[in-house]
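To whoever is on call:

I kicked off a structure prediction for a single chain this morning and the downstream step that reads the tokens threw a length-mismatch warning. I double-checked the sequence; it's 178 residues and nothing unusual in it as far as I can see. Pasting both halves so you can look.
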Amino acid sequence: MKSMNTISPAAESPEANENNAAATAPEAGAPAAATPDAGTPDAGMPAADSPRALLKQLQQQFEAFRNCLPLEIGIDKQLLARMPDLNRKLMRAALGIHTGSMRYLRAMEKATVRYDLDGKPGAEVTDTHRQHAKELLQQRFKKEAERKKAEREAAAQLEADRKRQEKLEQLASKFSRK
């Protein structure tokens, strides 16, 4: 339902960089590269088995996710570098949930700078990306308003049907033969 031809930062990071991420990832039989201890998951943390569980883990581990900061483009590569055993499909789904959230879109709408995993400022947020976040929010608000309006209309119709049925029953009892 996207009406823009531009790619949002949320979509650009996981999908557009998929090929680059795959090219920089270690092969199946290759030894894993050493990663700094500060970025590796805690030994006590279980591996995430759902996108929401992974997102919760990322929020606990990285300031950018915890504070819902606008993420740098290519954040998926940073995640894979720090967490080489990360399931790519799960990561993309978790990133989609995070970057599609109302909180993130509101942050993007007003943001001027993007952040890396540690919360350090990086590149600027473009006007195009800010505008895209604003449009997504407007679409969501419009959709929610339409849903609520439909609910009110359905409730009003149910009430009208109930009253009509009640009147019919009153007439039936008044004119029925006993």
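Update from on-call: the warning came from a stale cache, not from the record. Cleared it. Sanity check on the structure: The longest helix spans residues 127-175.
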